[in-house]
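Field reference: sequence -> structure
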Amino acid sequence: MTSGLPGDDKEQVRINLNGGLTLIPAPGFDRIAFDVKQIIEGYYKDTPIDIVPPVIKLRASGEPCVQMGKEHIGGHDCVLITSGPGTYKMICETQFLLGQIVGRRARRLMLVTAYQPLSRTDKDEGDLEFALQMHVVHLFKSAAYGKLDRIIVVDLHSAQGVQSGGQLGFITEISLARRVLKRAVQDAIKEFPQAKIILIFPDENAGKRFRDAVIRVRDEITREHSIELRILHGQKIREDSRNSQFLGLFGHLGDIEALKGGIGIIFDDEISTFGTNYDVAHEIWRRYDPRALRSAAIHGVFSENAAERISSATNPISRIYITDTVPFDDRPHLNHLFESQRVVCVPWVQDLAQVIYHYHWGQSIREKR
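Structure field:
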């Protein structure tokens, strides 16, 4: 570090009061952590990164234990990288890891849980089920003995989800909607250069949720390709969290008419069982006669028999665009979907690297993206 004296020409060294930067990948997130390390160290020369992969084992009794030493954690700025869905295993592992990191005397601790666990349970459902999103945040806070500094999430199901942190700025939401939408639209333009492109939201709430991203993509597409991106909203009645009835599409009459022979791109925040997407796509295909249907979403949960529905010959959606906020590394049963281009992954590691770097240096996460 320079002394500030005349003639002192040594290289300036940047000092971070939160210590060095350490990434701690939950099981299954090692690749993402190493990719983030390569991006930050390759682009930002002032931030070396340590990676500490924990080992989670079961004892002979079936009880869990976590093996993780103090090296690179004590006195460091630590980032735990994981993601939902919020299964018992995911929530328990995250709690154990948070407690272990605090016990190893991390200077500061941030949790990245891209697909926020229980994020869809943001309101009571019937007389028997409470909303649980705030509850799981409290579990994480408690596991970290109150020393968890921030949670980073991606495209919550409801904008009000950031309030489940219980304090200002505790949960920061990052949006990947623009990145996924633009990739899906650009590919459609390349493959169908003369066709009209129609973006379809399953309901009006989804349209409002991603309004800013849609406006940016529409303006960029108009500027770069001189093509008008048309927008339609679905209308449906939701019976519960798993079932809904599709009533039809609404929007400008010209946009609805453009769907006949056009390319429809259905966009939502996540794809879980692919049941709703499958049913809505069939109704759109039957009623509006598009040339092709695509789908795009942020979180590829792909639970239950989603893979079978997606690869089915009766599925009218020819391609699905998704991010890897829920990693695919340990889900080999989905490999054939990527190999056949039925599913295309738009990685989010570049965004994650920027978020972690700017958080570490105390800079605005949203402004720097």
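Note: The chain has twelve helices and 15 strands.
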